[in-house]
Every structure is written in structure tokens, then in C-alpha cells.
Q: What sequence folds into this?
């Protein structure tokens, strides 16, 4: 599949994320993350079934939480060409959606067949994501203080002016403390490492780095966006439970290997996301003049576009 075929799939990606975002609206703030996840997953599956070509889910979110999911190896679409690989999380930040909090997204990435790594046995990975200028400069194995110093030198910013995104998880307590002690500003969202990574690589970026352990599907999707923008990313599998450690070992995967960007996204890709609960990146769906509107972002081939779409007023009131 060449870049032209990939561009032809943009409407498919947007239809999928838009359908998932709208399906979640009735579950926002209802305290039922599984119901929201299931609604998003089924809406996205239905939208993907209409795609021309054949898509294969290489890595999907849900297994680690035993939540509804588009499963690894699942094929979608009408068949034939183009063939494409899929990394997906129909509802990124499920808990935020259930609590009625900002920043949940419907997300998906498409890539050329065989260019997404088969890392489904690993639910979590350690990630380091930043702008293009940091390529060849940083290493995931370095101490956080070294990472801050090198980032400061390359970006020409004092450490105290650096903004680092790290998820607010118990596993990150030491990392956050060390970054803060070194003088950096640390943004600590409860969930949402896709949005955190985008904050570090989009034009006019609000952050300088994403650091820490997040989901593997989110990591592969992020890699598609990072590659499209020529930015920097490294990752390493970081299982968080004994059963995950066993699955990773059984799959012949290493927790020591550092994955470079061209291993996480070995070919051209397309990333799309639609806002579900609103936030700094994308608006929540809204009603106006008899239509329901969604706001999405598409990242592909060095470009970033915000897309506002209108459809019939069928989404529930909110």
C-alpha cells in the first residue's frame, strides 16, 4: 500500500473514530466504563466493516482490562485491496469517560501491511516521545536527569522551562519526584498517554517530552503519528503483572530490547482521533442547527489536520 492508498483510507479512519465517539455520549459520566467501551467498540467495528479493502487488527486495547475490544488478528472491511494493518483503542481513557472528565478520545491508526510490530502479548510499554530535534540525542535507558539535561541543551531551554508529561500512576512516583527535583515542570494527567505524546510532537507543542509506562496499543498508534511528523520515539516492553510477563516471554519478546521508531512504525501510517469528552486537544461532540458535530485530528505524511464533521442529530442530548 502506497501513500496514495493510505490517503484514501482517511475517510474510513474518521468514520470509525467518529462513530465510536458518538456512541460513547450516552455513557459519559454514568460510571460504567465497560458499557462505554462496548458501545465504542461495536460502533467502530460497524464502521470498519464498510471499508473498501481488508484491514487486520495487529494490536487492540481491551485485553489487559478484560474489556470489550477489537481483538488481535480480527479482520474488517469488504475484502480485497487495499490491505492495511490497524492499531486501535476505540475509547482511550475509559475511566475519564465514565467519570465525565475531559480528555477521552476515540483513536485508531492504519499502516502498510506488516509494518506494525506484533506486540499484543505486552499490555504495557515504557515510552520516550519528543520533537524531531531530539532524534539521535536521547536514550530510554538514560537516567531522567540526563534526559532533561540533553533535552535542555538541544531545545535551548533551561530545565525549569521544560514541561514533561507523565501519567499519574503509582509506578511513576519515583520518576515524577526525580523530574521535579531536577527542576522540570511535570504535567501529571490520570490517563491518556496518546494525548500526552501528541502534546510533545504537534506543531506549537505544549510539552517537551512524554515519559513513562503506558499502554502498548497506544504506543503503536503514537508511533504512527510520530513517524508521520518525523519526531522522536523509543519504547521498551514493560509488563506490569506476572501473567503479562509470562505472555511476553512465551511470545519470545524481550523486556530489554529498545524499540526504535522504525521498528514501531516500519512504514507510512495514518493516525486519527475524535474527541469524546472534550479537552485541550479536541472538543466533545456538540449539537447545532439540527446536526451533531465532531472534532477530529488526522496525522499523516507530515501533515496535521483538524476535521469538523456534521451528521444527522441522532446522538443523545448532553
A:
Amino acid at each position: 500500500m502506497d501513500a496514495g492508498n493510505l490517503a484514501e483510507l482517511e475517510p474510513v479512519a474518521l468514520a470509525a473514530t467518529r462513530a465510536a465517539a458518538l456512541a460513547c455520549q450516552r455513557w459519559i459520566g454514568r460510571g460504567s466504563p465497560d458499557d462505554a467501551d462496548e458501545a465504542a467498540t461495536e460502533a467502530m467495528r460497524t464502521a470498519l466493516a464498510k471499508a473498501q479493502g481488508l484491514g487486520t487488527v495487529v494490536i487492540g486495547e481491551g485485553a489487559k482490562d478484560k474489556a470489550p475490544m477489537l481483538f488481535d488478528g480480527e479482520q474488517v472491511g469488504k475484502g480485497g485491496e487495499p490491505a492495511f494493518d490497524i492499531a486501535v483503542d476505540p475509547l482511550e481513557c475509559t475511566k475519564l469517560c465514565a467519570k465525565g472528565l475531559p480528555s477521552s478520545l476515540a483513536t485508531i491508526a492504519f499502516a502498510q501491511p506488516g509494518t506494525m510490530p506484533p506486540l499484543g502479548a505486552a499490555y504495557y510499554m515504557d515510552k520516550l516521545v519528543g520533537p524531531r530535534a531530539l532524534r539521535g540525542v536521547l536514550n530510554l535507558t538514560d537516567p531522567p536527569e540526563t534526559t532533561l539535561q540533553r533535552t535542555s541543551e538541544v531545545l535551548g531551554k533551561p530545565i525549569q522551562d521544560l514541561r514533561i508529561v507523565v501519567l499519574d500512576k503509582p509506578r511513576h512516583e519515583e520518576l515524577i519526584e526525580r523530574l521535579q527535583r531536577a527542576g522540570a515542570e511535570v504535567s501529571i494527567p490520570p490517563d491518556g498517554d496518546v494525548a500526552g505524546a501528541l502534546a510533545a510532537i504537534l506543531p506549537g507543542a505544549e510539552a517537551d517530552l512524554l515519559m513513562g509506562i503506558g499502554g502498548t496499543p497506544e504506543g503503536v498508534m503514537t508511533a504512527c503519528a510520530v513517524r508521520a511528523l518525523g519526531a522522536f520515539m523509543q519504547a521498551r516492553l514493560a509488563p506490569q503483572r506476572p501473567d503479562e510477563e509470562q505472555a511476553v516471554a512465551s511470545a519470545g519478546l524481550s523486556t530489554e530490547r529498545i524499540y526504535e521508531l522504525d521498528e514501531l512504525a516500519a512504514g507510512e501510517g495514518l493516525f486519527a482521533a475524535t474527541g469524546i469528552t472534550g479537552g485541550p486537544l479536541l472538543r466533545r461532540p456538540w449539537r447545532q442547527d439540527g446536526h451533531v458535530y465532531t472534532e477530529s485530528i488526522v496525522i499523516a505524511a507530515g501533515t496535521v489536520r483538524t476535521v469538523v464533521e456534521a451528521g444527522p442529530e441522532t446522538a443523545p442530548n448532553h
Notes: The two ends are 41 Å apart (CA to CA). The longest strand covers residues 83-92. The chain has two domains: 3-116+269-312, 124-262.
